[in-house]
Specification:
Number of strands: 43
Radius of gyration: 31 Å
Distance between the termini: 24 Å
Number of helices: 2
Strand content: over 45%
Structural class: mainly beta
Length: about 475
């Protein structure tokens, strides 16, 4: 485990001002001075502190022993071994890697031997031993004092709060929903059933449910008929009549397409963008979390008595552009935020697709049609329909983890192999590779009255194209 604990582990100390070089408690040193004060008592050290490239170095043994620790030296590796009883540190000459207990830390300055003496970065050692350091620029003095040992009472992590309009707080934590009053007094607790319901609409406009219940899948039609679904050996979701159920996204809409064994479309359901998560209490009463009520950006809870309690608006992500304007993403909506952080306009998603490039840099789009087939749109606007053939579990050479490799036959007669859900390899019928299509990121478009916002996701970067054509980088707000 590595981490950059200190951006400058031995930076020039600039914090605060400590009165009196001859402090009654703690340690005081001055750059270039061989006198060190320990709890007000003067003692002489053989090498004074020095500043090299704006970093403060101190003689290791005198300071560590004054801090209550002891020092050992591994001559073969040129490593200083420091121990306070509660903390163990290993610092190697000319190396920026330091060991703090069982963790490897990265320093931005390496320990050094100066005039035959081992000199180490002060701040890293002192703070690791539980001390605070201060720097007085006027006198070039360093002050080291014991940190306050008072242990502050840590706040209880209640989980993610959903603020209900009924005045209660619905905390989501560890697969539970804990309902509290405004003072965080627990009123009720519900446990997850690991049951998810996704609302779809049939051709008559009535609601149906696609249910994920642990490892089971089913479709509950509007008349209450339940169709059990299971994956076959090729990874295709099927019912007992060998009809295939294919989930697809076309632009901003999502569908469940049902095809018979001949590949003919026999039913199609349109996703409502409303999801239910089911919880139950010790009295077998249910609580349903509704995300995306009626396909909106809003959410809430259905109580056991059937009452729906709306919650304050919640966002999957919040971004700020270079002008510090806020945007929220919630259930397929782009929400423009006012200066007060409240919603000022909701804009529905109108399109989405993935961007690819080939080995020569030509650009492609990949998306699905209403029949559930993937479409590869070439740079010349040619559209190739991909028919799923099979999939297999393989080891990803880069990550060493299991991944899915899917095989498709294109309407152009070529074979398209989806590598782990990212890149495609394209082969002719003789097995000769023609090109590779490399995933560059996904794109979403949000439209309102011919006003279009485009969000492009690639790696850790999110870029927005505004209606006036201006492009700005978005920064995700800390949660």
């Amino acid at each position: 485990m590595k981490k950059k604990l200190f951006a400058a582990a031995a930076v020039l100390l600039t914090a605060g001002f400590c009165t009196g070089v001859y402090a009654d408690t703690g340690i005081a040193l001055t750059i270039g001075d061989q006198i060190m004060y320990v709890d007000g008592e003067e003692t002489e050290i053989d090498t004074p502190p020095v500043i090299i490239n704006d970093r403060t170095f101190v003689p290791v043994r005198a300071v560590v022993e004054a801090l209550g620790g002891y020092v050992d030296w591994a001559a073969e590796t040129k490593t200083a071994l420091l121990d306070s009883g509660k903390c163990h540190i290993e610092l190697t000459i000319d190396s920026t890697e330091a060991v703090l207990n069982d963790t490897t830390e990265t320093l931005d300055v390496a320990p050094a031997i100066i005039d035959g003496r081992t000199m180490l970065p002060l701040r890293f050692i002192a703070e690791s031993f539980g001390y605070e350091t201060e720097w007085d620029a006027e006198t070039k003095s360093i002050y080291i004092s014991k940190q306050d040992d008072t242990i502050a009472e840590e706040p209880v992590d209640m989980g993610t709060p959903h603020i209900g309009e009924d005045g209660r707080i619905y905390y989501e934590k560890d697969d539970d929903i804990v309902i509290c009053d405004q003072n965080d007094n627990v009123l009720e607790t519900y446990s997850s059933l690991n049951k998810y319901e996704y609302v779809y609409i049939d051709k008559t406009g009535r609601d149906c449910l696609v249910i994920y219940d642990d490892d089971e899948r089913s479709l509950v039609k509007a008349d209450g008929t339940e169709v059990k679904l299971a994956y076959d050996e090729n990874g295709s979701l099927q019912d007992d009549n060998e009809n295939s159920y294919i989930f697809s996204t076309v632009g901003a809409e999502a569908f469940l397409c049902v095809k018979n064994s001949d590949g003919d479309l026999i039913e199609k359901y349109t996703q409502k963008d409303e999801t239910h998560i089911i919880y139950v209490n010790e009295n077998a009463e249910t609580l349903v979390y509704v995300y995306g009520k009626d396909g909106s950006p809003d959410s809430g809870f259905i109580l056991s008595n059937g009452e729906y309690v709306p919650c304050e608006r919640e966002y999957k992500n919040i971004y700020y552009d270079e002008d510090d304007r806020g945007y929220g993403i919630a259930n397929g909506w782009l929400v423009l935020l006012g200066e007060d952080g409240n919603p000022s306009q909701d804009i529905a998603m109108s399109d989405s697709y993935d961007n690819y490039s080939d080995d020569k840099g030509n650009k492609y789009r990949v998306y699905r049609n209403e029949d559930g087939n993937s479409i590869v749109e070439y740079p010349d606007s040619k559209k190739v329909v991909l028919e799923f053939e099979k999939e297999e579990t393989v080891i990803d050479d880069e990550t060493g983890e299991d991944g899915i490799r899917a095989y498709y036959t294109g309407s152009d007669g070529l074979i398209y192999i989806d590598e782990f859900g990212y890149d495609y390899s394209v082969y002719d019928e003789d097995g000769k590779k023609i090109t590779g299509l490399h995933f560059e990121g996904s794109q979403e478009e949000y439209t309102s009255n011919h006003t279009v916002y485009k969000l492009r996701y690639g790696g850790t970067n999110v870029m927005m194209t505004k209606p006036d054509g201006g492009i700005t980088a978005l920064t995700e707000a800390a949660r």
